[in-house]
Fold this protein.
Amino acid sequence: MRLRKYLILVVILLCGSASLGCLMLGTISCTATHAVVDKQQTVDRIQKRGYLLVGTTGDYRPLSFREPDGNYWGFGIEMAGKIAECLGGGIQFVPTSWPTLSADVMAEPQTFDLAIGGITITEARREMMLMSDGYLANGKTILCRAEEADRYKSLADIDKPEVRVMVNPGGLNEKFAQQNLTHATIIVHQKNEEIPSLIAEGEADVMITEITEAPYYVQTDARLAAPLLNEPFTNGEIGVLMRKGQEDLLQLVNNVIHQMKSDGSLRQLHEKYGLVYAYE
């Protein structure tokens, strides 16, 4: 009987060690995550609550979009679902905006656990907050009317007084336009999701956007073109944003991203939304 109890204890200890080792190597499965997260402050709090609070703008097709009925869909929304799945609970989306994103992440009391959906990884954000590993390649490009696609072959072609450039406020698109288009006429429009249609209708000439967003609008609106899609002005990655002090949650998110890269599910998600997979 004593020998039997001893063997059971050894098996338990070995299993626990294996789970912890998987977490440290960043190759965990959801099962392994559940074995150790009860010792981690942020993850434990989320699990006790029973659902993950996710901040998202809901204005960025095909990464994060909120339909009039309140339902969210998109590449980033599915990524959030994977994270919630590994936490073993549900998910609740909390509206945020590009101008208020950083303030909302760091708000007191805390309004959500993490933010997702088209958030570019930058050193400025990393200094103030935590950002995950990248899960989607990104870069600045333009949308314009299809009949004017040959007009824009470079940034210099856009940076002219007669060119009306429309951007959404508060994010990196506006920042890029203000820094790089000193001669063009810049128009700030409050709702990002409305800008492509306004370009097509002639309210402005060019939209500063991302290589993640432009293909969707070109595919769904024949009036639009993205002539510089394969020559983005910048190159970067999109990640998950959260406040400092949540390193255990950051580790879990990075583990989910690593696992999805390893098992091919991240590539499949790229293909579902027509996005370029940059992780070989």
